[in-house]
Amino acid sequence: MSSVAPALVTKVDRIWMLAPFKKVWERRSREITLLAALGECIDRLFENPRSPGLNLETLRGPVGQSVLSARIDRSFRLILTPLAPREIGLLYFDNHDEAYRWVDRNRAQIPTMLTRVREIAPHVPISRTGSPIPVVQADEDAPLAVTSAAQWERMVEQGIERYLAYLDDEQKRIAELHASGLLLVKGGAGTGKTAVAIHRALWLAQQPSLDGLGPSRVLYLCFNRALATAVEQIVRALCGTWPANLEVRTIHGWCLNLLNAVTSQFAVGSEAVRQRTYREFGRLSADQRATLAPQLGPFVYEEIEQVVKANGLTDRAAYQNFNRRGRKIGLKQAARDAVWDVFERVQAWQQETAKLTWTDVPIRALAAWDAADEPPRYRAVVIDEGQDCTPVMIRLARRLISSSGQLTVLADPAQEIYDCGFQWTQRELRPRGGNTRWLRKTYRTTREVFDLARPLLEDDPDLADDLAQLAPPERRGDRPVALACADSAELHQEIVDRVVAATASRPANQIGVVASSHLQLSAVATELKARGVRHQLCGRGAGDIRLHEPSVKLLTMHAVKGLDFPEVFVLAPSDGERGWDADRDAECRRRFYVALTRSSDRLTIGLVYGRHHPLTARLSPACFEARGTRGREFANTAG
Question: CA-CA distances (angstroms) from residue 412 to 387, 388, 463?
Fold first, then answer.
């Protein structure tokens, strides 16, 4: 049945679990000695597949698909197959005779067994690799249900893909709720909003259309590219093949596609528009500027973007009468007139130069949709991270669905980090009482992380009602660590040391490094590269996040929204850092809260003592363990 030493596998960079392997691995998960030997066999395949100790043999496989056998120990063999150059898939393992008989029985079916369900990292014990993402088979027509906090903890240990594929009973009811018009789903960090959004989109896509009439497509929208990419990968894992009538996009990506289809005469240049706004503010008369004092150009730019454009206000009277609650700074009629004068001048310049801000993009897309002869329509639209949507985005989403269509919006006001004014978006949504549902149970976050992060939000009166709906997590974990260092170089070295140590106990793709800026992430990436740690710097041209790739993920606090990792290292902002100004305190609190609650198991917060942001100093010493050369000083002054 076999021949010696195949030449077709000479180097291995990636190894994948396939479905038959997963089943036998789960069945034998308590056989620790066997799994240890299996892990050593896999490590040898990574190091040198032609190693004599592997005794790699070619078996008679189906036409066009090679099947090989590798030695685990004296009694057991591993069955594998090449998937691509330098990639192999694990099919099965058993004692020598049974493994070969399995190949004989399944030879004709092997080409149908090649779906990748999880990548295996080198030098990580196979017992820690975790069960793969559950693949929805033909006889599985419902999401698997979470029945206990202990089950959730096991899933958390196995990474984001695992628990985004599962729903508890409450989540499943919402995902499969028959609702017409709007459904608003609210929940805190870690309550499973993204999992519900994924399964709701899939469930809606599976519903039959009446007599084939009307649109059949379902559109999932979110705010950042990292989350959209993660959702795409999870949908593929859940479904095997991509549902033909499902689209997954970012809101701005969808809008840009529509605009590009009708015109190429525009460019997104928010900074150019910002500078033009400052210039036009400077051209106001002294009396007009006095009505806005002490506010200057930056305030006017934010007022135009966050109030005028975000709400789609099209004339001076609408702005004069608009309820600006949420902006914190009141404006009298004369001040609003001055703002509108600047807005009109900047708008005229934008028309001449075809320059847009990101807030302009959905406004232009809505206008393009209204002007189209046959605008795109969908049976349903699901919006994840809806707290970051502007009212204009909601108006566009309503246009996209037919009169009998369904719009689902999932949101957590506590995670609004773009200052889009969710209170205005909720007015635009106009949810009726029965059309608002709550996810109250917090799964992902441990009680220790919850207790550390929650006080960041408790001084915000706009969040009081929403926070009252959330139950504290049942799951316990380690206390977060506050790592206080003397300078940036020491901090980056300490963080990298701890990341390296973490990769010894869990797969690298279960570790996230989150920072307030790309500059900080680049410094950490340089250190990781020098230490030979595989990592992925996400965003800013570095490529989309690859969840399955066994690499540490580096993301900004904005890009990590909707994602999380069992172990997270947060590089806290510095005092005076751009974007963390005192006059944006509420937004900064929410952004820091998002960063801290990305951890599902262990959390480390890194800071430079003496230069740390006041928000970091507000963390309660009772909720963290102080470490680092300046840890004692930080603990004595925090809280």
Answer: 6, 9, 10
